[in-house]
Amino acid sequence: MIVKGLSHIHRKGIVHCDLKPENILVFPSLDKEIANYQLKIADFGLSKTKEEEVNVELWKSKPRGTPSYLSPEAFSGHIDAPMDIWALGCIVIEMLTGLPAWGESPLLIEELRYLVEHHELSPKKPQEIGFFCHDFLEKCFMKDPSKRWTADRLLGSDGYAVGFLGSFFSLMALPKRSWSRTVLENRKVVQSIDT
């Protein structure tokens, strides 16, 4: 549902710029045959439209969004739909592990800027995930935003979506401890750069 929502806003020329779990609302579904709940993307206060003029220098110095979900291009002032896909990947890791993709404590803008500009890192993917989950995250975390899959492309492959969901739900039986280890390893990378 999140990808479907992103597809809708991106086709309308809107980039959310602050996609994170706190901005995804859960409502009871009106059609219980499809799902018990529906998800809605909220808080468009930082969003950008295609018509909006971009002050690249301002956005380079102060990117829009929450640091732990910012894409590498956010630091160059390039604001477009692929940055929401990067944030989606961070959210998926958080859904899988129960912890933010870069660790429990929030990243500062300066920490993340250093990581993405000097180390070309993306959050580490949990090892226990299946092929489709891993591949989905790879497509979300492509460093080059022009190569990152669009929401429409992620939605357009039915086999891909079914495989991803199968991989995702098969993970629910795995111990949380193994997931926490992946997130802790991501946080250690950040801490080692701080020293």
Automatic annotation (TrEMBL):
GO terms for molecular function: ATP binding; protein kinase activity. Pfam families: Pkinase. One of its GO terms (biological process) is signal transduction. Residues 1-165 form the Protein kinase domain. InterPro entries: Kinase-like_dom_sf (IPR011009), Plant_MAPKKK (IPR052751), Prot_kinase_dom (IPR000719), Ser/Thr_kinase_AS (IPR008271). PANTHER family: CCR4-NOT TRANSCRIPTIONAL COMPLEX SUBUNIT CAF120-RELATED, PROTEIN KINASE SUPERFAMILY PROTEIN. This is Protein kinase domain-containing protein.
